[in-house]
Amino acid sequence: MSGVFQRLQESLNEAKISATHKVNEIATTNEKILDLYPNTVSFDKGKHTMTTDHGTKINDVDHWLKATGPDSQGPSLLEDQIARERIHRFDHERIPERVVHARGTGAHGYFKLNEPIPELTTAGVLNDTSRATPVFVRFSTVAGSRGSADTVRDVRGFATKFYTDEGIWDIVGNNIPVFFIQDAIKFPDFVHAAKPEPHNEVPQAQTAHNNFWDFQYLHPESTHMFTWAMSDRGIPRSFRMMQGFGVNTFTLLNAEGRRTFVKFHWIPELGVHSLVWDEALKLAGQDPDFHRKDLYEAIENGFYPKWKFGIQTIAEGEEDNFDFDILDATKVWPEDLVPVREIGEMVLNRNVDEFFAETEQVAFCTSHVVPGVGFSNDPLLQGRNFSYQDTQISRLGVNWEQLPINRPVCPVMNFNRDGAMNHRIHKGKVNYWPNRFEAAPPGNYNGDAGAYVEHATKMAGIKARVNGPKFKEHYSQAQLFYNSLSEHEKSHVEQALGFELSHCDEPIVYKRMSERLADIDISLAQRVAKMVGGDPPATTKHPNHGLKAPRLSQTEFPGKPTIKSRRIAMLIADGFDMATFTAVRAALKAQQASTFVIAPRRGMIFPAGVDPATGTGGLMPDHHLEGQRSTMFDAIYINPGTQSTLTLRENGRAVHWVREAFGHLKAIGALGDAIDFVQQACVLPGVALALDQNSKDVVTSYGVVTGWNADVKLLESTKIEPSTTA
Ligand code: HDD
């Protein structure tokens, strides 16, 4: 550590780190950030001159060297080594994208343990409450390629790298607690079926196609997972508002050598919230980087997302006490049977300096665990433990763990050598063990926490391509999940299936899937079949058992009510009431909401009483009505002002803004004459508005803003569904 600190000191002295991060030095620096500093370069005005990669100064990067005459443009010369270097480097900028989870974004932070668990594990990170373990988290979608949109319906990856004192620990999880397949050998088929179809490479980042649903039908084990993926979990409002699950069954090993099966959980402080489908579809075009920007913006503004860390544990010896196999990744451990124990928390508080070097090159392996954490015979996990190391070698090269973002903060000492892009220089005469110098012996390292010890598990069996007998049951938990959803969540599942299956144009696919849905719930199957052209099934071999379990519905994770970091659009036009605007904006800012002023044009907007001819006294909006849409905001507020309201009322786009926000179940605020405007825009057949004339508080669907003055009125849809309201 002292070496790292010394390097930090040197780097700081040389002012090599960026000014933004200096501001946040205390709050956001950790061992891993310090470790990255020696590799972090910044370009300070006046200090640096451009050079080639071999360090010679360059005086012209605008003109390729040419053989040119006084009146003619001569040919470009290949001998220009400076131009050649630039083009060569450029030609090789891309590395292969991840074969799955190609689209993603990440951030740094820390993990803090609140409750040590020595009875379960020797892992330092799960015992030492004084540590703040650095982490890097990458969130992702699964199916789309690197340039695809953020808000597509998909599972989200939630991969966490802990830089512990005892080495790297990766929990490579998702925002859904189960998986599509039980055995890793099926992964290539699953991914091929989910990705664009081979004959025309269509569709991008969508499961709404024949091959995906054909695969789902042919793999009854996928039923549970696709029900989750079709629920609101498939279209999260934000990475900050998702649960994370390790999915696979791992083990913990204590000092007595006792083993406990474990599943890992991340529970977001902000609650679990989703977009509505129409919003997600529109955002995919209007702002494909919506989730990426949301995370970045929140961290830059100091709204650090936070998750509780939980474990579900089953002591060895009790694993057969369930009607499902605890090693089957298509099953949850229902929380009424195995409660989640919250023992720590994770905060993300720092954006990356460079996307490629950090987020694109970060690489995870389920096989990366620390002493005290181990694997189980979960057949999906066993295959994953092979696959990740392998894919990193092909994507990043054999020395991928030497890359700054991937290297541990503790020493690495072994006789693995050479390979492309090796960066280490090992001193000494030997590169093998045992050696006459007894250099780098295995075993306890420097007397620190113990080495990784494999649990001495008793094994007996016959080699065969099989899974355990309980792996054969596929519908019970799909039913449990569906039954546990609220009514509006169920209707969203139905609509999602309706959308997906109507994009399948081969009758065998949507007809078979309509039948399969009866294994979840016959009435769901009948409704979807009717929608998509299937044959509504009359009976099912697997009638719904009617059971529910707690904490499967996301409505059970409302989170801490807050409008902190929520994006609120404030609509104004010329003639707006400046005093009210200023008061409302101050009130919103006091609650740490992010406000954005939207007007018919991004040019000075003048309040009532100010003559535009003077050119002063106006307000410059952040965006104009066409440039940003209501989809990009959590709530909208329409400011009063006779002329302003008149202008907005006559502006089709402004009316659309209000109607769309209303349709997406967003909180809409209005004052004075703007209330009439909102009412006129939104009162559509079948939709009711509740107008609370007396409220002193503005209640949003996700929080309460206190302290507004008594004039503030509440406008709210009676149809607001809290869990799905963004
Ligand atoms: Fe995987 C990436 C999550 C099953 C093989 N996976 C990857 C990432 C996440 C997951 C979050 C992105 C990591 C990052 O941000 O870089 N994968 C899961 C979960 C699974 C799962 C939760 C089920 C429990 N995966 C799974 C199987 C296999 C793989 C069964 C292969 C047998 N996964 C990969 C991969 C990837 C990957 C091909 C692509 C890029 C990478 O690893 O680094 O190796």
UniProtKB/TrEMBL annotation:
<dbReference type="Pfam" id="PF06628">
    <property type="entry name" value="Catalase-rel"/>
</dbReference>
<keyword id="KW-0575">Peroxidase</keyword>
<protein>
    <recommendedName>
        <fullName>Catalase</fullName>
        <ecNumber>1.11.1.6</ecNumber>
    </recommendedName>
</protein>
<dbReference type="InterPro" id="IPR041399">
    <property type="entry name" value="Catalase_large_C"/>
</dbReference>
<dbReference type="InterPro" id="IPR011614">
    <property type="entry name" value="Catalase_core"/>
</dbReference>
<dbReference type="InterPro" id="IPR024712">
    <property type="entry name" value="Catalase_clade2"/>
</dbReference>
<dbReference type="InterPro" id="IPR002226">
    <property type="entry name" value="Catalase_haem_BS"/>
</dbReference>
<dbReference type="InterPro" id="IPR020835">
    <property type="entry name" value="Catalase_sf"/>
</dbReference>
<dbReference type="GO" id="GO:0005829">
    <property type="term" value="C:cytosol"/>
</dbReference>
<dbReference type="GO" id="GO:0006979">
    <property type="term" value="P:response to oxidative stress"/>
</dbReference>
<dbReference type="InterPro" id="IPR029062">
    <property type="entry name" value="Class_I_gatase-like"/>
</dbReference>
<dbReference type="GO" id="GO:0042744">
    <property type="term" value="P:hydrogen peroxide catabolic process"/>
</dbReference>
<feature type="active site">
    <location>
        <position position="101"/>
    </location>
</feature>
<dbReference type="Pfam" id="PF00199">
    <property type="entry name" value="Catalase"/>
</dbReference>
<keyword id="KW-0408">Iron</keyword>
<keyword id="KW-0479">Metal-binding</keyword>
<feature type="active site">
    <location>
        <position position="174"/>
    </location>
</feature>
<dbReference type="InterPro" id="IPR043156">
    <property type="entry name" value="Catalase_clade2_helical"/>
</dbReference>
<keyword id="KW-0376">Hydrogen peroxide</keyword>
<dbReference type="InterPro" id="IPR024708">
    <property type="entry name" value="Catalase_AS"/>
</dbReference>
<feature type="domain" description="Catalase core">
    <location>
        <begin position="51"/>
        <end position="441"/>
    </location>
</feature>
<dbReference type="GO" id="GO:0020037">
    <property type="term" value="F:heme binding"/>
</dbReference>
<dbReference type="InterPro" id="IPR018028">
    <property type="entry name" value="Catalase"/>
</dbReference>
<feature type="region of interest" description="Disordered">
    <location>
        <begin position="535"/>
        <end position="559"/>
    </location>
</feature>
<feature type="binding site" description="axial binding residue">
    <location>
        <position position="388"/>
    </location>
    <ligand>
        <name>heme</name>
    </ligand>
</feature>
<dbReference type="GO" id="GO:0004096">
    <property type="term" value="F:catalase activity"/>
</dbReference>
<dbReference type="Pfam" id="PF18011">
    <property type="entry name" value="Catalase_C"/>
</dbReference>
<dbReference type="GO" id="GO:0046872">
    <property type="term" value="F:metal ion binding"/>
</dbReference>
<comment type="function">
    <text>Occurs in almost all aerobically respiring organisms and serves to protect cells from the toxic effects of hydrogen peroxide.</text>
</comment>
<dbReference type="InterPro" id="IPR010582">
    <property type="entry name" value="Catalase_immune_responsive"/>
</dbReference>
<comment type="function">
    <text>Catalyzes the degradation of hydrogen peroxide (H(2)O(2)) generated by peroxisomal oxidases to water and oxygen, thereby protecting cells from the toxic effects of hydrogen peroxide.</text>
</comment>
<keyword id="KW-0349">Heme</keyword>
<comment type="similarity">
    <text>Belongs to the catalase family.</text>
</comment>
<keyword id="KW-0560">Oxidoreductase</keyword>
